[in-house]
């Protein structure tokens, strides 16, 4: 059988030195005096001596010869000090690089948002934020709700805003506003003269002018009809923007379901007619999204706060 070594005779591995001890060793090498090195670090000489002794014990090496004329590094001390200098230089470079990244994060904000939020809400939120942070650069990517989480998780956007009820991946979310979908038709459509509300089943069986699959509006409608016990609606036409859907409905192509934010003016001015629906909940939460485990900080957190204040009417804090 192989012999089991006596643990009392096995040398202990060197302990990882702390950075301040390495800094002290480099200063002793540069200044030739433990006292002057301690003064530079603003610690007492006895404290510096204890720290150096701890470093030597941890590495299992004698690093400094202490004499009345000063402190001189041993050969081993010179080698260790060379390594320490490189470690400290790398640390300084790391801190400088982190500072640049932090400054850049504070100077720009990349946002991904679904179409309805980007067109009807974000301009106000961004304007308010830039009113307090005029130096801030803000870039906006507009896509459907299904794609927003991917842009945020990949780092292409710092914060995302979605209108759909379903997330394509696990993320942190916070409600920033509420929206309601409205069934709309052109004034010449038979539904424009209805006295009683549509039923959920009538709506689900009628071909509609719709946003594309993956849009928050489409997800919300499909989910609302499912919860009402109805099948998904059949698309008459699928279009890639809210403006295109509005235009098609105004032109008489067919009914649609759109955000109240998008059609409020059209209904008020008679270009479209809103149709009541019974038995189906078409309200939805508008949410900010960001990667799970990542803290919401900086301009991204400020934009989310502005979005919530725009709903509640609160004033931003004074700088």
From TrEMBL:
Cite the HTH lysR-type domain residue spans from the record: 17-74
> What InterPro entries does this protein's entry cite?
LysR_HTH_N, LysR_subst-bd, WH-like_DNA-bd_sf, WH_DNA-bd_sf
Mind listing the UniProt keywords for this protein, alphabetically? DNA-binding, Plasmid, Transcription, Transcription regulation
The organism sits in which domain of life? Answer: Bacteria
One of the Pfam families matching this protein, by short name: LysR_substrate
Molecular functions per Gene Ontology: DNA-binding transcription factor activity; transcription cis-regulatory region binding
The similarity comment for this entry is: Belongs to the LysR transcriptional regulatory family.
* Name recorded for this polypeptide: LysR family transcriptional regulator
Biological source species: Streptantibioticus cattleyicolor (strain ATCC 35852 / DSM 46488 / JCM 4925 / NBRC 14057 / NRRL 8057)
Q: What is the lineage of its organism?
A: Bacteria, Bacillati, Actinomycetota, Actinomycetes, Kitasatosporales
């Amino acid at each position: 059988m192989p012999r089991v070594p006596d643990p009392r005779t096995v040398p202990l591995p060197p302990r990882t030195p702390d950075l301040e001890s390495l800094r002290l060793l480099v200063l002793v090498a540069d200044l030739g005096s433990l006292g002057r090195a301690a003064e530079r670090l603003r610690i007492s000489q006895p404290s510096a001596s204890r720290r150096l002794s701890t470093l030597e014990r941890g590495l299992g090496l004698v690093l400094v010869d202490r004499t009345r004329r000063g402190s001189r590094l041993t050969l081993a001390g010179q080698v260790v000090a060379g390594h320490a200098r490189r470690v400290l230089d790398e640390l300084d470079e790391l801190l400088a690089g982190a500072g640049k990244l932090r400054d850049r994060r504070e100077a720009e904000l990349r946002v991904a948002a679904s179409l309805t939020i980007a067109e009807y809400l974000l301009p106000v939120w961004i304007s308010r934020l830039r009113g307090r942070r005029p130096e801030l650069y803000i870039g906006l990517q507009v896509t459907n709700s299904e794609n927003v989480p991917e842009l945020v998780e990949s780092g292409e956007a710092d914060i995302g805003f979605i209108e759909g009820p379903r997330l394509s991946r696990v993320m942190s979310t916070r409600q920033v506003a509420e929206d309601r979908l409205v069934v709309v038709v052109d004034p010449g459509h038979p539904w424009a003269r209805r006295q009683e509300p549509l039923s959920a089943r009538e709506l689900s069986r009628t071909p509609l002018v719709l946003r594309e699959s993956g849009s928050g509006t489409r997800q919300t409608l499909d989910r609302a009809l499912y919860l009402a016990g109805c099948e998904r609606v059949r698309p008459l036409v699928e279009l890639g923007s809210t403006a295109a859907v509005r235009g098609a409905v105004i032109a008489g192509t067919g009914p649609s379901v759109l955000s109240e934010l998008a059609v409020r003016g059209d209904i008020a001015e008679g270009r479209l007619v809103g149709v009541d629906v019974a038995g189906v909940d078409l309200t939805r939460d508008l949410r900010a999204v960001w990667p799970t485990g990542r803290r919401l900080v900086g301009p991204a957190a400020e934009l989310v706060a502005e979005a919530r204040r725009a709903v509640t009417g609160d004033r931003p804090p004074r700088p």
